[in-house]
Amino acid sequence: MAKQPMLKFVTVDRDMPEKREATARKQDFNEIYAEYAKVKAEEQASRCSQCGVPYCQSHCPLHNNIPDWLRLTATGRLEEAYAVSQATNTFPEICGRICPQDRLCEGNCVIEQSGHGTVTIGSVEKYITDTAWEQGWVKPAKPAQERTESVGIIGAGPGGLAAADRLRRAGIQVTVYDSHDRAGGLLTYGIPGFKLEKDIVMRRNDQLEQGGVTFRLNCQVGKDISFGEIREAHDAVVIATGVYKSRDLQGPGAGAEGIVKAIDYLTASNRLSFGDTVSEFEDGTLSAEGKKVVVIGGGDTAMDCVRTAIRQGAESVKCLYRRDRANMPGSQRETNNAEEEGVEFVWLTAPKGFSGDPVKGVMVQKMRLGQPDASGRQSPEVIEGADYVEEADLVIKALGFEPEDLPTLWDQPELEVTRWGTVKAEFTTGATAMPGVYAVGDIVRGASLVVWAIKDGRDCADAILEQFGAPVSVAAE
């Protein structure tokens, strides 16, 4: 009888790839997790229970066929595992690195619920596609037939690039417009290298270009080219700008020097990793070196900021969040990594104002959790008389992002937006009320996850292909 290759969770313990020691990893911006070896990847994949109702798959926004590619990995059929993985996910090696698996697939793993520790889905996903790159299995698009229709995509982030890949493989002529000098959006300039090394993103950009996608970089819509000109040049337009307008802080002293936006801080740090000259870093404005740093916020962007400040040589790094640890929106895994690296979390605190200009301190209000709000989360309430001042030379605002006013910026008053400022579009197709205009990702959802942007980009591309009467490919090749 053939040996059972799966269901080994009873005898094989969960084992993540080796994580570099905090004292070593905080000295650089390299990724902190090592790669699985072949034997270890097969072993960890074999822990999957192959359950009849795979909650990992249903809780993945892309509905990746996780049990299938785990079984293929466990039995050494890695090229097939890559093909299955790539069939539903345009960028599996990126999702394997930055998806909050603890809140999605792994957090809903059946064997986790039974106390055996979740399958290390993200690490296996990363291993599969990294191996596929090494073996030359990842190929640029080679459409069976070129088509005359063209699509303009505004925004070279994960949503726009996922749509570009899907459309290009069907033979559509694709042009991507982006205001930055490199494609990738937040994958390139928002997420630090210790979570996603930049060569991982650049090789995908190169692959898209080799497959026939045209990039128009350093191109700001509304300034260098009008939205109307883009509509005239293409049969369909996809808005995939993301949301980059930072939520602001109120209170006395909020405009003081030394209080900076998270996106500016992270972009400067990532530009340095490319070898760019960043004047705001050189003059100390966006550098944490030798400073007492306070980051305000509790999401993944705040985690990126505190861990970047540690690597830049900050004297101290503290993170203020108005709720407690259990109610923070960021990944618990990232919080643990930050604590290991020396970040101090000050729970149940919120800024009331700032002292000094340049900033010398944050006036902090202590909070407690009261009754649940409309979302079901307990609302923070101020504890009167418990204010204090937290010393700070650099304050980083990581309070989340809002959409820019696109109808005004692009002189398109007919572009409908919601009361939150996001573009009004069908979630299933991305279609807006403007003929031939679609929107995907955060500009529709509000600030969300990379995996949701990929999902939206793929779904929108399929809707456009259907509109064009073009066949929809389910595979990467």
Structural overview:
The chain is α/β, with parallel strands linked by helices and 477 residues long. The protein folds into three domains: 8-135, Fumarate Reductase Iron-sulfur Protein, Chain B, domain 2, CATH 1.10.1060; 150-243 and 403-468, FAD/NAD(P)-binding domain (3-Layer(bba) Sandwich); 251-401, FAD/NAD(P)-binding domain (3-Layer(bba) Sandwich), CATH 3.50.50.60. It is built from 19 helices and 16 strands.
Number of helical segments with 4 or more residues: 19
CATH topology of the largest domain, by name, is FAD/NAD(P)-binding domain
Tell me the CATH superfamily of the largest domain: FAD/NAD(P)-binding domain
CATH class of the largest domain: Alpha Beta
Mean pLDDT: 94
- What share of the residues lie within helices? 25-40%
State the end-to-end distance: 36 Å
Whole-number radius of gyration? 23 Å
Q: Please, how many domains?
A: 3
Q: Estimate the global geometry from the Cα principal axes.
A: globular
Strand content: 15-25%
- Main β-sheet, in a few words? 5 strands, parallel
Q: State the strand order across the main sheet.
A: 3-2-1-4-16
Q: Segments where pLDDT lies below 50 for 5+ residues?
A: none
Number of strands: 16
Structural class by SSE content? alpha/beta
GO molecular function: 4 iron, 4 sulfur cluster binding; metal ion binding; oxidoreductase activity
Protein name: Glutamate synthase (NADPH) small subunit
Pfam families: Fer4_20, Pyr_redox_2
Keywords: 4Fe-4S, Iron, Iron-sulfur, Metal-binding, Oxidoreductase
